[in-house]
Automatic annotation (TrEMBL):
The chain crosses the membrane at residues 29-53, 65-86, 106-124, 144-168, 201-223, 244-264, 276-296. It holds the Pfam family 7tm_4. Belongs to the G-protein coupled receptor 1 family. PROSITE patterns: G_PROTEIN_RECEP_F1_1 (PS00237), G_PROTEIN_RECEP_F1_2 (PS50262). Residues 45-294 form the G-protein coupled receptors family 1 profile domain. Keywords: Cell membrane, G-protein coupled receptor, Membrane, Olfaction, Receptor, Sensory transduction, Transducer, Transmembrane, Transmembrane helix. It is a multi-pass membrane protein. It comes from the Eukaryota. One of its GO terms (cellular component) is plasma membrane. The keyword Metal-binding does not apply. PANTHER family: OLFACTORY RECEPTOR (PTHR26453). One of its GO terms (molecular function) is olfactory receptor activity. This is Olfactory receptor.
Amino acid sequence: MIRGMEQHMEAKNQTTEFVMVGFATHPDWGLFVVFLSCYLIALTGNLLIIFVTMADAALHTPMYFFLRNLSFLEISYTSVTLPKILANLLSEDRTISFLGCATQMYFLLFLGGTECYLLAVMAYDRYVAICHPLHYPVLMNRRVYIRLAAASWLTNLLVLMGHIAAIFTLPFCGSNEINHFFCDVPPVMKLACGDTHRTEIAILLVALFFVLLPFTLILASYVRIISTILKMASAEGRQKTFSTCSSHLLVVTLFYGTACTMYLKPKSSHSPNSDKLIALLYSVVTPMLNPIIYSLRNKEVTGALRRLTEKNVLSTSLEVYVG
């Protein structure tokens, strides 16, 4: 099926592969070290969040279940782009096949769309916890939060197949150089020739569905959350309650700020340099910062990490003593 799609797409085009221009035209060890460091930090931080929230029984709650999903998603997201970027930084050959480009774009959009809805689900979880605390165990029981997480992952699974097919069945009859470091929608669309108006409208509609709709749900949740917090009599209570969702709010701001800038502006307003900078923020910087935000600003996570560290140190000391 995939091979048939590739043949169908290539049949309509003279282009059989793309060349990633990226940041440099020659191998660059300096950039390689920078991107490798970012990749390792993102992997280590997100794996640590997954391990800590699974190992500590006190963190077996819906909030941290969603956080584990988010960390796994960030690992997947960076792994779709950064290995290819690293390879290109050390090679003169920066080509990517037609199908390879389509596949990379599919997983980028799939994981990005999943993150949009997962962040909306996390906002709903905070809304229920803060606005309806007595009903929280019922409204957010195990079956509910597992289904909400599954829905976040499955919502855009098939929709994006048609979306990608619509983009890659456009005629690409000019240059095959993508002025970017991975196959993102705006730089690929710039290479299409002929009438792309219908495809651009379809892209905008999909972006509205995967970006604007969950953002509206997040906004509605936080309007109710802030309203509830402001009604609290104690300043300490307000501060403590807001601290439970401040990390999520910061992550939402980082992610949606860059996503809206990239996908909800018209094609004519895109420029290669600004697109690269924005793409760096949501594809590299945000996945690297998320675990730092959730660990430094979350006393439960830092406490769990400290307990696990002390437990391991104690176990090691006992083994040495007994040995």
